[in-house]
Design brief:
Distance between the termini: 7 Å
Number of helices: 9
Bound molecules: 2-phosphoglycolic acid
Helix content: 25-40%
Largest sheet: 8 strands, parallel, barrel
Structural class: alpha/beta
């Protein structure tokens, strides 16, 4: 049985730390000792410390963004080194919502990728398609393949408040397979490629078995412990 990666992107939710702890506790209980899945929960920065005690077994913690410098005069930013020192192992980079709302460019993502892998974080790199992946990887050090998980996430498929239309598994399959080829060529190894965009407990299996994804990045469906636990269990059976 292959191990699948399920990444929970909580985005800018929930509004209180008590609620974040309630969701996390529900997920930890719901998933139990599920085998065959690795689950990375990515809450807002503010909740990382409070959720650290839950990062054990198949569950680990990730952040949703970081800056490209280690420290210094960069008001409002958080560095990959700070996250690593806190006990956070993974980092989402390049999410399309950052491009859309904050003007994040592929150049910025490239710099962040380098800084994060140097700091020892595993990067969950979101890209729209294979062409964007190639652009970001230009000049990337061949040694970062081990610290990389890539997500094929068409921005139009991302849900808005939990309602969206996922890409068809057959279309996703083409893009995922091109991405795997690019990654093999760049790093000489298999780098996991996930699918993201309106994933739920009902469609997760089709992305794993039909589209050939190695897991999924889950937004809104990761905020409800029962839904998310059901999704992880479905995924672990593939
Ligand atoms: P969604 O979000 O699952 O709510 O579509 C995915 C993401 O943007 O990370």
């Amino acid at each position: 049985m292959k191990k699948v990666f399920i990444v929970a992107n909580w985005k800018m939710n929930p509004q209180r730390v008590e609620e974040a702890e309630r969701i996390m506790e529900g997920i930890a209980e719901g998933i139990g000792d599920v085998k065959g899945a690795e689950v990375v929960i990515c809450p807002p920065f503010l909740f990382l410390s409070s959720l650290l005690p839950y990062a054990k077994g198949v569950i680990s913690l990730g952040a949703q963004n970081a800056f490209w410098e280690k420290e210094g005069a960069f008001t409002g930013e958080v560095s990959p080194v700070m996250l690593k020192n806190l006990g956070c192992g993974s980092l989402i980079l390049g999410h399309s919502e950052r491009k859309k709302h904050l003007g994040e460019t592929l150049d910025m993502v490239r710099k962040k990728l380098e800084a994060a892998t140097t700091a020892g974080l595993r990067v969950i790199l979101c890209v729209e398609n294979a062409s964007e992946l190639s652009q970001i990887l230009q000049g990337a050090d061949a040694s970062i393949g081990n610290s990389l998980v890539v997500v094929h996430e068409p921005s139009w498929a991302i849900s808005s408040s939990g309602k969206g239309n996922a890409e068809s598994p057959s279309l996703a399959k083409k893009e995922i397979s091109s991405m795997k080829d690019i990654l093999k060529e760049a790093f000489g190894m298999e780098v996991p490629v996930l699918y993201g965009g309106s994933v739920d407990a009902a469609n997760i299996r089709s992305f794993l078995s039909e589209a050939g994804a190695d897991g999924a990045l889950v937004g809104y469906a990761s905020l409800d412990p029962a839904t998310f636990s059901a999704l992880v269990k479905e995924a672990s059976l593939v």
